[in-house]
Design goal:
By secondary structure, this protein is of the alpha/beta class. The protein has ten helices and seven strands. It has a seven-stranded mixed sheet with strand order 1-3-2-4-5-6-7, sandwiched between helices.
Length: 216
Protein backbone atom coordinates (compact mmCIF):
# COMPACT_ATOMS: atom_id res chain seq x y z
CA UNK A 1 0.00 0.00 0.00
CA UNK A 2 1.33 3.42 -0.99
CA UNK A 3 0.22 6.75 0.48
CA UNK A 4 1.36 10.22 -0.61
CA UNK A 5 1.13 13.65 1.01
CA UNK A 6 -2.08 15.63 1.45
CA UNK A 7 -3.38 17.16 -1.79
CA UNK A 8 -3.74 20.79 -2.68
CA UNK A 9 -7.33 21.95 -2.17
CA UNK A 10 -7.69 22.84 -5.86
CA UNK A 11 -6.73 19.35 -7.01
CA UNK A 12 -8.81 16.20 -7.37
CA UNK A 13 -7.65 13.54 -4.94
CA UNK A 14 -7.92 9.88 -5.88
CA UNK A 15 -7.32 6.50 -4.31
CA UNK A 16 -6.97 3.40 -6.48
CA UNK A 17 -8.04 -0.10 -5.45
CA UNK A 18 -6.79 -2.69 -7.96
CA UNK A 19 -5.36 -6.11 -7.21
CA UNK A 20 -2.87 -6.17 -10.10
CA UNK A 21 0.26 -4.12 -9.39
CA UNK A 22 1.01 -3.59 -13.07
CA UNK A 23 -2.45 -2.10 -13.63
CA UNK A 24 -2.01 0.21 -10.62
CA UNK A 25 1.35 1.34 -11.96
CA UNK A 26 -0.15 1.88 -15.42
CA UNK A 27 -2.98 3.97 -14.03
CA UNK A 28 -0.56 6.05 -12.00
CA UNK A 29 1.63 6.69 -15.04
CA UNK A 30 -1.44 7.49 -17.15
CA UNK A 31 -2.76 10.03 -14.64
CA UNK A 32 0.62 11.57 -13.79
CA UNK A 33 0.32 13.90 -16.78
CA UNK A 34 -3.03 15.28 -15.60
CA UNK A 35 -2.19 18.32 -13.41
CA UNK A 36 -5.53 18.39 -11.56
CA UNK A 37 -5.32 14.80 -10.36
CA UNK A 38 -3.46 14.02 -7.13
CA UNK A 39 -2.74 10.35 -6.38
CA UNK A 40 -3.23 9.91 -2.62
CA UNK A 41 -2.74 6.18 -2.38
CA UNK A 42 -3.32 2.73 -3.82
CA UNK A 43 -3.91 -0.79 -2.57
CA UNK A 44 -4.61 -4.31 -3.76
CA UNK A 45 -7.54 -5.51 -1.65
CA UNK A 46 -10.97 -4.36 -0.56
CA UNK A 47 -10.35 -3.98 3.16
CA UNK A 48 -7.30 -1.77 2.51
CA UNK A 49 -9.38 0.26 0.04
CA UNK A 50 -11.99 0.95 2.68
CA UNK A 51 -9.30 1.99 5.18
CA UNK A 52 -7.74 4.38 2.67
CA UNK A 53 -11.09 5.97 1.86
CA UNK A 54 -11.89 6.40 5.55
CA UNK A 55 -8.46 7.80 6.41
CA UNK A 56 -7.71 9.97 3.37
CA UNK A 57 -11.25 10.94 2.28
CA UNK A 58 -10.38 11.19 -1.44
CA UNK A 59 -12.66 12.88 -3.92
CA UNK A 60 -12.76 9.77 -6.10
CA UNK A 61 -12.07 6.08 -5.58
CA UNK A 62 -11.05 4.15 -8.71
CA UNK A 63 -12.37 0.71 -7.83
CA UNK A 64 -11.91 -2.69 -9.41
CA UNK A 65 -14.79 -5.08 -8.75
CA UNK A 66 -12.74 -8.26 -8.37
CA UNK A 67 -10.76 -7.47 -5.25
CA UNK A 68 -9.57 -10.08 -2.74
CA UNK A 69 -10.79 -9.96 0.87
CA UNK A 70 -13.68 -7.58 0.27
CA UNK A 71 -15.00 -7.33 -3.28
CA UNK A 72 -15.72 -4.02 -4.93
CA UNK A 73 -19.47 -4.22 -4.31
CA UNK A 74 -18.78 -4.73 -0.61
CA UNK A 75 -16.47 -1.71 -0.59
CA UNK A 76 -19.20 0.44 -2.13
CA UNK A 77 -21.76 -0.87 0.34
CA UNK A 78 -19.48 0.00 3.28
CA UNK A 79 -18.76 3.47 1.88
CA UNK A 80 -22.48 4.16 1.59
CA UNK A 81 -23.21 2.77 5.05
CA UNK A 82 -20.52 4.99 6.58
CA UNK A 83 -21.91 8.08 4.84
CA UNK A 84 -18.58 8.83 3.18
CA UNK A 85 -18.67 11.44 0.41
CA UNK A 86 -16.05 9.82 -1.85
CA UNK A 87 -17.37 9.28 -5.37
CA UNK A 88 -16.82 5.78 -6.76
CA UNK A 89 -15.66 5.19 -10.32
CA UNK A 90 -15.57 1.51 -11.19
CA UNK A 91 -12.64 0.60 -13.45
CA UNK A 92 -13.00 -3.02 -14.47
CA UNK A 93 -12.62 -5.62 -17.19
CA UNK A 94 -16.11 -6.97 -16.50
CA UNK A 95 -18.46 -6.26 -19.38
CA UNK A 96 -21.37 -8.49 -18.37
CA UNK A 97 -24.72 -6.86 -17.71
CA UNK A 98 -25.02 -8.44 -14.25
CA UNK A 99 -21.83 -6.77 -12.97
CA UNK A 100 -22.80 -3.49 -14.60
CA UNK A 101 -26.25 -3.36 -13.03
CA UNK A 102 -24.97 -4.58 -9.66
CA UNK A 103 -22.41 -1.75 -9.56
CA UNK A 104 -25.09 0.81 -10.35
CA UNK A 105 -27.36 -0.64 -7.70
CA UNK A 106 -24.59 -0.43 -5.08
CA UNK A 107 -24.02 3.25 -5.82
CA UNK A 108 -21.28 3.47 -8.44
CA UNK A 109 -21.04 6.99 -9.88
CA UNK A 110 -19.32 5.76 -13.02
CA UNK A 111 -18.34 2.57 -14.82
CA UNK A 112 -15.29 2.45 -17.09
CA UNK A 113 -13.66 -0.45 -18.88
CA UNK A 114 -9.94 -1.16 -18.58
CA UNK A 115 -9.88 -1.13 -22.38
CA UNK A 116 -10.98 2.54 -22.43
CA UNK A 117 -8.27 5.09 -23.15
CA UNK A 118 -6.70 7.73 -20.90
CA UNK A 119 -8.94 10.50 -22.21
CA UNK A 120 -12.04 8.52 -21.28
CA UNK A 121 -10.70 7.83 -17.79
CA UNK A 122 -9.87 11.48 -17.14
CA UNK A 123 -13.24 12.54 -18.50
CA UNK A 124 -14.93 10.05 -16.19
CA UNK A 125 -13.00 11.33 -13.16
CA UNK A 126 -13.88 14.95 -13.94
CA UNK A 127 -17.53 14.04 -14.50
CA UNK A 128 -18.05 12.14 -11.26
CA UNK A 129 -16.15 14.66 -9.12
CA UNK A 130 -18.45 17.39 -10.48
CA UNK A 131 -21.47 15.43 -9.32
CA UNK A 132 -22.31 13.75 -12.62
CA UNK A 133 -22.42 10.10 -13.62
CA UNK A 134 -20.30 8.49 -16.34
CA UNK A 135 -20.87 5.27 -18.25
CA UNK A 136 -18.52 4.03 -20.97
CA UNK A 137 -20.37 4.17 -24.31
CA UNK A 138 -19.39 0.55 -24.91
CA UNK A 139 -21.08 -0.42 -21.66
CA UNK A 140 -24.17 1.63 -22.40
CA UNK A 141 -25.15 -0.99 -24.97
CA UNK A 142 -25.58 -3.45 -22.07
CA UNK A 143 -28.36 -1.35 -20.65
CA UNK A 144 -31.47 -3.41 -20.07
CA UNK A 145 -35.19 -2.82 -19.68
CA UNK A 146 -35.47 -2.86 -23.48
CA UNK A 147 -34.91 0.90 -23.54
CA UNK A 148 -32.88 1.10 -26.74
CA UNK A 149 -35.28 3.09 -28.89
CA UNK A 150 -36.14 6.80 -28.92
CA UNK A 151 -37.58 8.44 -25.84
CA UNK A 152 -41.31 8.50 -26.35
CA UNK A 153 -43.44 10.44 -23.90
CA UNK A 154 -40.77 12.89 -22.79
CA UNK A 155 -41.52 16.59 -22.87
CA UNK A 156 -39.25 19.00 -24.76
CA UNK A 157 -37.69 20.11 -21.45
CA UNK A 158 -37.12 16.51 -20.36
CA UNK A 159 -35.50 15.73 -23.72
CA UNK A 160 -33.18 18.73 -23.30
CA UNK A 161 -32.20 17.51 -19.85
CA UNK A 162 -31.70 13.91 -21.03
CA UNK A 163 -29.37 15.16 -23.78
CA UNK A 164 -27.27 17.00 -21.20
CA UNK A 165 -27.28 13.97 -18.90
CA UNK A 166 -25.73 12.01 -21.79
CA UNK A 167 -22.89 14.54 -21.83
CA UNK A 168 -22.20 13.79 -18.16
CA UNK A 169 -23.44 17.09 -16.76
CA UNK A 170 -24.58 17.23 -13.14
CA UNK A 171 -27.99 18.58 -12.14
CA UNK A 172 -26.33 21.82 -11.00
CA UNK A 173 -24.57 22.27 -14.35
CA UNK A 174 -27.74 21.48 -16.30
CA UNK A 175 -29.69 23.99 -14.23
CA UNK A 176 -27.10 26.70 -14.94
CA UNK A 177 -27.27 26.03 -18.68
CA UNK A 178 -31.08 26.03 -18.81
CA UNK A 179 -31.65 28.83 -16.31
CA UNK A 180 -33.58 26.70 -13.82
CA UNK A 181 -32.84 25.53 -10.29
CA UNK A 182 -30.92 22.38 -9.44
CA UNK A 183 -34.00 21.15 -7.56
CA UNK A 184 -36.14 21.56 -10.69
CA UNK A 185 -33.61 19.59 -12.75
CA UNK A 186 -33.67 16.80 -10.17
CA UNK A 187 -37.47 16.64 -10.36
CA UNK A 188 -37.30 16.46 -14.15
CA UNK A 189 -34.73 13.66 -13.91
CA UNK A 190 -36.99 11.77 -11.53
CA UNK A 191 -39.86 12.13 -14.00
CA UNK A 192 -37.65 10.97 -16.89
CA UNK A 193 -36.51 7.92 -14.92
CA UNK A 194 -40.08 7.08 -13.95
CA UNK A 195 -41.32 7.34 -17.54
CA UNK A 196 -38.47 5.17 -18.82
CA UNK A 197 -38.59 2.63 -16.00
CA UNK A 198 -35.10 3.43 -14.72
CA UNK A 199 -33.91 2.83 -11.19
CA UNK A 200 -31.16 5.38 -10.57
CA UNK A 201 -29.10 8.23 -11.99
CA UNK A 202 -26.43 5.99 -13.48
CA UNK A 203 -29.04 3.99 -15.39
CA UNK A 204 -30.40 7.26 -16.76
CA UNK A 205 -26.90 8.15 -17.94
CA UNK A 206 -26.51 4.71 -19.55
CA UNK A 207 -29.81 5.09 -21.36
CA UNK A 208 -29.02 8.65 -22.47
CA UNK A 209 -25.57 7.64 -23.76
CA UNK A 210 -27.17 4.76 -25.64
CA UNK A 211 -29.36 7.21 -27.54
CA UNK A 212 -26.27 9.03 -28.82
CA UNK A 213 -24.58 5.90 -30.19
CA UNK A 214 -24.74 5.32 -33.96
CA UNK A 215 -26.94 2.53 -35.23
CA UNK A 216 -25.07 -0.73 -35.93
Amino acid sequence: MVVSRVMNAREISIVVAEDHALVRQGLRLMLSVEPRVRWLGDCGDGHAALRLVRDLKPDVLLLDLGLPGLEGLGVMQSIAAAGLETRVLVVTARQDAASFHAALAFGANGYVLKTDDADALVSAIMTVVDGGHYVSPELATLFGHGMTGPAEGLTARESDIAARVACGLSSKQIGAELGISEHTVRKHRENIARKLGLRNAAELVAWAVRQRLPET
